[in-house]
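[audit] Reproducing an earlier prediction to check determinism. Same input, same settings, fresh worker. If the tokens differ from the archived copy the diff job will pick it up downstream; this log only records the rerun itself.
[audit] input (401 residues):
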Amino acid sequence: MRLANGQPYLAIPGPSVTPDRVQRAMHRTSPNIYEGALIDTVVGLWPDLKRLAGTSQHLAGYIGNGHAGWEAANANLFSRGEKAVVLSSGRFGEGWAGHARDMGIEVELVDFGTAAPADPDRLEQILRADTEGRIKAVLTTHVDTASSVRNDIPALRAAIDAVGHPALFAVDCVASMGCDRFEMDAWGVDVAVSASQKGLMTPPGLAFVWFSDRARARCGRGDLATPYWRWGPRAEPAEAHEYWGGTAPTHHIFGLREAMDMILHEEGLENVWARHEALAGAVWAAFDAWGEGCAIGLNVGRPDWRSRAVTAARIGGADGTRLRQWCEREAGVTLGLGLGMNSPEDPRADGFLRVAHMGHVNAHMTLGALAVMEAGLKALGIPHGEGALSAAAAHLASVAG
């Protein structure tokens, strides 16, 4: 007997759950794109999106996903042949590096594996060795969506400052924006990249690049900054169509407006960050219990190195894939696959999975997903420790007070 009929739950790290309110806001006829409500909504969104990122500086919006955000950042930061240092803690750090390399940018990839953050001391050494000042920018992920490693952005900024190097500092916040604490101006970030489909609780289709005064003064006019990707007109449009480089993403705009109301004006950003912290802790508590004396464990050992938006874990053998398939087929819960943890031909790739707790997620959704996972562990005969659900519930009870 299958128990999957009913409302499915998508516990993958993007696209995340879209709130009913966001869907209803998008369910309308096409609006006038030249004047009226749509233009007013976009104008009102820009200050809120800056507030979300913790900046008073500049913002450009694009129709696209997180990869489009990478392209926009690369196109404005660099000219062909200029050099980037990319600090990688998983698949998406490697991906941004590959994307830059394919655009003709010289890339020095510094790989820290898939279970630890970038080392500020190593960055400092690289910058000190750059006596000719060839490095134009340092790129990294705040949270790598695949490994769930969270980099210490202020510490990396401090490493750049310790050398006095002029490199700009760019951060991929696709998985972290609206989930993990991020403060662009306070942390000294020059460029931040994100997209709509994760913490922003809106379907895929919007990418955003926030950029500093320093980045604006030094970038955006090189040979990669083609008319569509150039951020200047989008940040300070003379006409409404310049916000998006043409026809606006009409229905996404109305959905995002509703999502931003929920995040900033109703729950409040500090509370959003606290909720993600609490739900992540519940997931970690469950895995700690399941892992007692077994092969199950969290990918990232130290809590301060872990994302609050998604948790990568190892189950062992082929059991990660078996458990994911059982949860979706038998109980209607879709978990994330172990992306980038091993090559596809490596049998260990089937031993990983990811649990997302990002965006429009609450206690009963997280506890429900963990309960389904426990049922799957039992049904499949996968060895695991006891007490996971009690541990997760106790954690939430302690933080809820």
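[audit] rerun output stored. Observation attached for the diff report: The chain has 14 helices and twelve strands.
[audit] end
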